[in-house]
Task: structure prediction
Amino acid sequence: MGKRVLIIGLDCAPPELVFDRWRGDLKNLGNLMEFGIYGELESTIPPITVPAWTSMMTGKSPGTLGFYGFRNRANYSYDGMVFANSQYVKEETVWDILSRERKRSVVIGVPQTYPPKPLNGCLITSFLTPDTTCQYTYPPELKEEVEALVGEYMLDVDNFRTDEKDRLLRQICEMTERRFQITKHLMTTQPWDFFIVVEIGLDRIHHGFWRFFDEGHRKYQPGSKYEDVVKDYYLSLDRQLGELASLAGKDTAVMVVSDHGAKRMEGGICINEWLMERGYLTLEERPTEMVPFSKVRVDWDRTAAWGEGGYYCRLFLNVKGREPRGTVDRARYDEVRDRLKRELEGLTDEKGNHMGTRVFKPEEIYPVVNGIPPDLIVYFGDLSWRSVGSVGIGSVHTFENDTGPDEANHSQYGIFITGGCKMEARGKISGLHVMDVAPTVLSLLGLRVPKDMEGKVIAA
Result:
């Protein structure tokens, strides 16, 4: 006990690529797996950056945290959505607990850390920061040190949903190189007990380049000049990981984790088009071209439900006495919700084949439900299809994303790999969840795990 812990977060890394397809080429990750512990890491429902990383760093479920995606309902109005930044994180993170125990942390790129909060150590916020004119470090003077080292810090690429693939690839590589340059600098100049860095570039490269290597993707292009882009990026991450593990030293437990996985995107389901077809949603005037749902005029007095787009669908009911112009009687709430669930689970693809859509009720998957959750959480095609919120498309199925080109969706399982500190090699294990990471870190550092953490200690 009392050892240091280094976490290298690879946003969106799926076990299918790391454990299987490219394992033989990823030497450093392969060594960690061979001499340590690894397994599929089940993500939150939904498997989205927010709330998954915060669930991982608090050991708490989205229901406890009270947010269910990047944007959440602030109230029961029709447009009262708020962005879940660090101010909405009310539960203690790992570094909050460590600060209280007088242990030092270095935190780089973890989502939901903007605006930065004080800690015993230093922090650089994530891609969810508006831009670098904001205060994106703690302490504030760290910003000058970062920019003296790498110039302008790259929080994210400009736009990963783009056809400008050369520009996108160049920016991803440049961003990743700068992030790891800063990481190595802080690893060797700052005292620390706990260090975490999250790289968002892997998520961006999956969404931008998946179809070029995946032979099963409906838009696969054999022989493209981008065919090896994703694999080459993994190889570069593996080299960086080896350097970080070497810098950390033999007395450091090293973890490699991802918040969720990735899979090919088959297409999109236009949830509001589907609701209109079924009579659940009525517009005052139907558009003749694609329009974001927020821009249309809804006849709320004749609407029972509406949906939001994204990698999963958030479906909301228009309930009397809850929403301003609710139409669904509270006494019929369960009946209407159950009917919607059955109909959504019966969805077929464009050829009439059953899609395997999964639909969740928040109160059935979370121990408590805080904030304002969706009435239903929907995985179209078990996350092989995304949710498209725009209307005016004219069909339920679409193969063009309404927010720009995107070739991959999120999947339910990410990765967990750990080794170092003479940890007994156990090989591949099962039953791991993102909420298990926080209690495992605390245990490795010799600290008591709070009783209200919902995860369990994986290894010590």
